[in-house]
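hey so i finally got around to running the thing on that chain from the lab meeting. sorry it took forever, my laptop kept dying and i had to restart like 3 times. anyway pasting the input first so we r on the same page abt which one it is
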Amino acid sequence: MILFALGCMTVLGAGAVTYAYLTDDDVKQNEIRAAENKVHIEEEFKPPEDPQPGDVIVKKPWVVNDSKIPVYVRIRVHFSDLRGESQCEPLQIHRKWSRQEDGYYYYDNALAAGEKTEPLFERIQLKPDLIKEEICPFDLIVYTESVQAYGFTNAETAFAALDGGKE
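ok and heres what got predicted. didnt touch it at all, straight out
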């Protein structure tokens, strides 16, 4: 009888070990969060009340990274009116920005969370040989885009990936 009890306990023990081995599981929960990529343009701008030939208009646009991640930024600038553009001297672009073939100015460095770029330019200058009565009003439109910096070595490759691999 003792032998029978020991045999049953052995069979049950082996069965329990086998069941535990075959049914063991381990669970890991992976949490994935999407990072928000958000920037905005700030500027110092002092429009003239009565523009004169040769006037220097203070306009300093820069980009601020509102994200919690580093981003690359680019800016496109265009005049609302071709006559307005022809009235102005070429913009003097800050050395940390470089114009690429796509027409955008790319900031040389990734912008950390909360950081701001150097101003793209600091002034607009009306040509000195203009005739006062022919000066027409215009807007200088500044548009920016950003892309996360993780996984990219520079702004050009990051935006090329964003644009579908076109460089």
